[in-house]
Amino acid sequence: MKLAKPELTDQEIDRIVEMAWEDRTPFDAILTQFGLKEQEVIELMRREMKPSSWRMWRERVQGRATKHLAKSAVNDARFKCTLQKKISLNKISKRK
């Protein structure tokens, strides 16, 4: 039995396109949030983008480890500058 594709609003389509362009957002996150599989995201991107933009996106995404949770590094740490102030209880801790 085939599941029905979810009806998406213009805002949701914009968000999916934005998430698909982001390097660190895996297809699994789009599946969880919007119920679209990788192939459906590819079809949506092809439909919503100009042909040249779609080709550029496809080249960029194909084979990228960060777009697939199974291929990405487990301990994917984010960079934080040593000069960045620490935030504690929504207040910058250095202020008085």
Automatic annotation (TrEMBL):
One of the Pfam families matching this protein, by short name: DUF2805
Top-level taxonomy: Bacteria, Pseudomonadati, Bacteroidota, Cytophagia, Cytophagales
Record-given protein name: Uncharacterized protein (TIGR03643 family)
NCBIfam families xrefs: TIGR03643 family protein
